[in-house]
Design goal:
By secondary structure, the protein is α/β, with parallel strands linked by helices. It has helices at residues 11-23, 26-33, 37-51, 67-91, 111-125, 141-146, 183-191, 195-199, 215-222, 237-244, 255-261, 293-308, and strands spanning 56-59, 62-65, 100-105, 129-134, 152-155, 166-179, 202-206, 229-234, 249-254, 267-271, 278-284. The strands form two sheets. Strands 3, 4, 5, 6, 7, 8, 9, 10 and 11 form a nine-stranded mixed sheet that branches. Strands 1-2 form a two-stranded antiparallel ribbon.
Length: 314
């Protein structure tokens, strides 16, 4: 046998070889493979030329393998069977046996909401499964999902949603967080808790962006109200809750986020006195992920985990 590279061999030729070994004849192999007898004979001839060794000899109406063919028959059959098992595992995701780290595009503020219940479900489903959470770039979301940088990503409704599969997974109302026994808030609520008394307070604005209004600011503008007095702008809900616990500032943040990070003994939650201000979080995934059973499985775990996790009150 002359030296050759596997890349030169069409794997279909090995499938034909394996079928002829199993059937003991060209006719039997052609029936197994749903090919014509000339096609089977042609495939064997090509494989013989590539390997540089005779493979079969005619005997009566059948064929018998040469010593060389007998030597490679077992390893070829095992290799084809292993490949078939690999493809079947890929087509039918088995969480209990799989080895896979799922990658989530997730902003830091959402990690306390999404990760606790989801990580419990993933770890319980199989010992070889895990999660990686990393911040994603909104401008690259579509390309990063297509390239496999993330299996799914979570964000607000984005312009890219017109081109990508997505679904609403969380709807969280905004609440006002203040310190316990906040005197100005107590006085404002006693006078009637509304947009005007809300605006009498000093505020912490929480945003990952460098500048610009938040959802509550847009809602106030729609009512024709003046801007809030923002004394501090920060990125972290947890930091905002710690700040308002020791000052007379108040912070307006999503309720689920607040309940994960606030100090219940130091802080209080008050309903935002503005109607229809809800933070909606969408799950995005690659356009071709419906052919990926592992991705479909992950998305279902996310739906169940978020449905069973702590929810904001409606």
């Amino acid at each position: 046998m002359h030296t050759m590279h596997l890349s030169r061999i069409d794997l279909n030729l090995l499938v034909v070889f394996d079928a002829v070994i199993a059937a003991g004849s060209i006719t039997g192999a052609s029936r197994r493979l749903n090919l014509s007898q000339p096609a089977v004979s042609h495939a064997l001839a090509r494989l013989r030329d590539l390997l540089g060794e005779p493979l079969f000899e005619r005997l009566g109406r059948g064929v018998v393998p040469t010593p060389f063919a007998r030597a490679i028959a077992g390893p070829v059959h095992d290799a084809l069977a292993a490949m078939e098992r690999t493809l079947q595992r890929a087509a039918q995701f088995d969480a209990a046996a799989a080895e896979r780290i799922f990658r989530l595009g997730l902003r830091e503020a959402l990690e306390p909401v999404v990760l606790p219940s989801l990580s419990r479900a993933i770890c319980a489903a199989g010992p070889g499964l895990g999660l990686t959470s990393a911040r994603h770039d909104r401008t690259r979301l579509e390309s990063d999902l297509a390239a496999g940088e993330f299996d799914v990503a979570f964000d607000v409704r984005l312009p890219v949603a017109e081109r990508m599969p997505h679904e609403l997974v969380l709807a969280d109302r905004l609440v006002v967080v203040a310190r316990r026994n906040h005197p100005l808030l107590r006085r404002a609520r006693r006078r009637g808790w509304n947009a005007d008394t809300y605006l009498e307070l000093d505020h912490v604005q929480v945003s990952s962006r460098r500048r610009g209004p938040s959802m509550e600011d847009v809602a106030l503008q729609a009512l024709g109200k003046p801007a809030r007095r923002i004394r501090l702008r920060c990125q972290s809900h947890a930091a905002a809750c710690r700040i308002v616990a020791t000052t007379d500032l108040v912070a307006t943040i999503p309720e689920l986020h607040a309940r994960h990070v606030l100090d219940a003994e130091a802080n209080q939650l008050v309903a935002l006195p503005l109607d229809d201000v809800t933070l909606e979080t969408y799950m995005y995934w690659p356009a071709n992920a419906d052919r990926d059973t592992a991705n479909r499985w992950l998305r279902e775990q996310i739906r169940v985990a978020l449905a069973n996790g702590p929810r904001s009150r409606r």
